[in-house]
Amino acid sequence: MGMNLGAPGANQSRGSLPARPAVQSRGEGGRTYPWRFLPRKDHVGTRGGRGAGVRASLPASAAGDVADLAHRPVSQPHLNTKLHTGGSNLPSRTRLPEFGFAATCPLGAGARRMGLLRCGPWGWGRHLRAPGRGPLQLVTRLCGDHLQASPPKKARAGQEDPGTPPSSPLSPEQLIRIQRNKAAALLRLAARNVPVGFGESWKKPLSAEFGKPYFIKLMGFVAEERKRYTVYPPPHQVFTWTQMCDIRHVKVVILGQDPYHGPNQAHGLCFSVQRPVPPPPSLENIYKELSTDIEGFVHPGHGDLSGWAKQGVLLLNAVLTVRAHQANSHKERGWEQFTDAVVSWLNQNSSGLVFLLWGSYAQKKGSAIDRKRHHVLQTAHPSPLSVYRGFFGCRHFSKTNELLQKSGKEPINWKDL
């Protein structure tokens, strides 16, 4: 195309760097500026400064064929790549020096297929694949034998490099469709990770958690624990609390810490044990308080609290699994984050709930509850170690029913066990 930027001398080897050729750049108003290829890590440019481009017009043989070029320093000292040239004085395989610039360029007059143009002291060639990072800065055009300086483009908001082209604009409809597709993909991922025995009404509100890395890692941890140790409760009972009532029918929330770690005890409800296992000490103390707080309450002779759960009492432990005979063995593995999400959803999407927070652990976990939206009752834990510090005589069960009735909700029949 008549744009030979200087061929190397006969005594010049391919491995050495030739002298950088100078080319005259014709600026606006007829002014002429010197223009050179710069060494690696420097920008190829004109007197217009960083981001300034070069432009001219194609010769008659390629009229109408416009190529967008870009300044781009070479990232390696030498490039051993194949050149497909047309009208070029370059051989088909050439090591280019470490200066020059790469650009996109049509293959000829009327052609639409784009390639890469490499300019160097030996001339120019097409289809060179130049390595490097980042998009080309489309700031120049190849036009003829002259390089005309063009002013630098102003940087758009949010662009780090003034010469970086903006991404293709998307219509509002396209953006909405992208967001919908992302949401659908997350739902599909979550559906694959829904654990066994998870209540149907609870799936959608908590589906966002199932696809999160912490939950996937947590499920993997519990699965590995079950391979090596005995883990309570069994898989189908870990989420019993989601099977007893609809998530929107929850009226009372009692927060526990972690499951009982003895055989046949834990079954997915805090403080509750399977029949015919006798009630643990903490549950016995709960029954004692009930006998003085709720008229007509009689010890049921078992420790299964499913009757409460079916009425809308969420019996939720902070940690949902445990290794046999090792209390807190699954602590800080991810269950706390998941159950925090449960409490958070109820806090934000329900109203008039009664939260019973027994002990400092439960009180800390429930510290973010909106007390203008819900009712919170706090006291000591029913454990034998702390039951006399406020649990006995707290009358939380009768107070809970009073608060529910004020909110227009049915009270809990605490005797229905």
What is the SS-derived class?
alpha+beta
Strand order of the largest sheet: 14-13-16-17
Please tally the β strands and state the result: 17
Order of helices and strands: EEEEEEEEEEEHHHEHEHHEEHEHEH
Poorly predicted regions are 1-153
Strand residues, percent: 15-25%
Mean pLDDT, nearest integer?
Answer: 72
Radius of gyration: 37 Å
What share of the residues lie within helices?
A: 10-25%
User: Can you summarize the main beta sheet?
Assistant: 4 strands, parallel
Please tell me what the overall shape is: globular
Total count of helical runs of at least 4 residues: 9
How many angstroms separate the termini? 93 Å
Structure characterization notes:
It is a single chain. The chain is an alpha+beta fold and 417 residues long. The chain has helices spanning 172-192, 200-210, 213-228, 240-243, 281-293, 306-309, 335-349, 360-365, 396-406; strands at residues 22-26, 32-36, 53-55, 67-71, 79-82, 93-96, 101-106, 114-120, 123-126, 137-142, 148-150, 231-232, 252-256, 313-317, 322-323, 354-358, 375-379. It has a four-stranded parallel sheet. It has a three-stranded antiparallel sheet with strand order 7-8-9, with no helix packed on it. The longest helix is centred in the middle third of the chain and has 21 residues, at 172-192. The chain is globular and about 70 Å long. It starts with 21 loop residues before the first strand and ends in an 11-residue tail after the last helix. 33% of the residues are buried.
